[in-house]
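Dear support,

I submitted the protein below through the web form. The confirmation email said the job was done, but the results page showed an empty box. After a refresh the structure appeared. I'm attaching both so you can tell me whether what I see now is the final result or a partial one.
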Amino acid sequence: MLDVINHELNRRIAGLRALCIVISAISMLNLIRWILAPTAQLQFVNQGQMLLNLTSFLIFGAFIQYLKSSNYRVLSIATLLLFPAYYFIFDLLIDMDTRYVNPELIGLGRSLNTSPLVPMTFVVLGTLFLRSSLIIVFIGFFTVMFGWEIYQVVNDERTYFESNFDVLQRDGFAINTSILIVWINVWVIISIVCWSVVYLVDRLMGDVVKFEKSTAQFGRYFSPAIREKIQESDLEVKENENNSQLVAVLFTDIDGFTELSEKMSSKEIIDLLSEYQDKMIKPIFKNAGTVDKFIGDSVMATFGTPTSQGNDAQNAFNCAREMQIAMRQWVKEREDKQLPIVSHRIGIHFGSCVVGNIGNEDRKEFTVIGDVVNVANRVCDICKEFKCDFVVTEDLKNRLNETLNAEEVKDYGIRGKKDKITLYKVQT
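What the results page shows now:
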C-alpha cells in the first residue's frame, strides 16, 4: 500500500519538477534578454526585470534541486503562489513602461494584439502540475488577469474599437476588434483543452494507482511468473462456475506457537510471524506456488492455481524442501541472536479441488476448497503425532519425479475422512 502511494507521489513530484524546470528556463532566457537588450524606457523597469528573473531562476532552480517527497506539499504550495506572482510582477513592470512612459510609441489598443500570449503560456505551463484542481486555479487567475488587461485598455479614454485595417495600422490606440474576438475564443478553447488534458491525466493516474494497488495485493499471493502468465493470457475465473482441477495443497504450522507466544510481547509475536511468513513466501513463489492465505501461525499454499504449471506436485515438494532449508538457517540466526528457537511442520496433499472466487459481492477471495485442503491441513497436524516435521500423502508421492526418501505409514485414519490413506514421513 505504501509503495503505491509513493508511486503516485513520485508522479506529482515529476510534474512539479518539470514545471520548475520550465519556469527556470524562461526566467534565465528573460534575464539574458533584459541584460543584453533592455527595451524599457524606465531604468527602474529594466533593473526590476533583471532582478525578478534572477530571483525566479534561483528560487525555482533551488526547488528543482531540493524537491523530494518530504517537502513536496510545501514546495507545491510555494510554486502555486510564486508562479502567478512572477507573471503579475512581470506584467506590472511592462505595463508601467507601456502605459505611463511610451503609450504613443506602442499603443494601448495595439498591445491587445499580443498581450494574451503570456498569460496563455502560463496556463499551458500549469498543465505540468498534472492536477485538475490546480489547473482550475491557474485558469481562473490568468483569466482574471487577462480580463483586467482588456478592461484597462478598453476603459482608457484614448482607445476605441476599430475594424478598418488602414486605421489600425495608423493609430496605435485603435483596438482590433477581430483579433480581440479571436483571442477570447482561443483563450476559452485553450483553457478547456488544458483542463481536459489534466483531468484525463488525473483520471488515468487514478486508474493506474488503483491498478497498482490491485497488483500489489495480487503480488502478495501469486509469484511473478504466475502474475505475468495471468496478465498475458487474460485469465478469468467465472463467477459461480465449478472450476475443478488437480492441485497440490501445502500447509505449514509453527510448532508450539501457543506456548511460545505466551512468553513474548505483542510486538515480538508480530515480528516473529512477519519474519516467518517472509521466509516461507520466497520458496512458494520460487516454485510457482500461490499463497492462498495466512491463518495465524500457519501458511496455506497451492500449486497448480490458477493454472497448472505441469509439475505441480514436484513444485510443492521442492518448495517444502527449500522451506526446510530456510527454516534451519533461520534457527541458526535466532540462536546467534539468543532468541527463542522455533520449528515448524509441513504437510502436503494432492488431488482435485474447486478453484475460484469464493464469497459475496462485498468480499471475494481467490481460493481452493474441497477435501484435499482438509486432508493437507490434517497431515500437517499429524507431524506432531509422528514426531517429524514433514509429511506427504501417497497421492502426492506418486506424482513426484524422484525417489522419495521417507518412512511409509500405511492405512492411517484421518479425522473427518472415511477412507484410510498412506502417509510418508519425509527425511530432509
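Response: this is the final, complete result; the empty box was a page-load delay. Residues 1-5, 230-240 have pLDDT under 50 and may be disordered.
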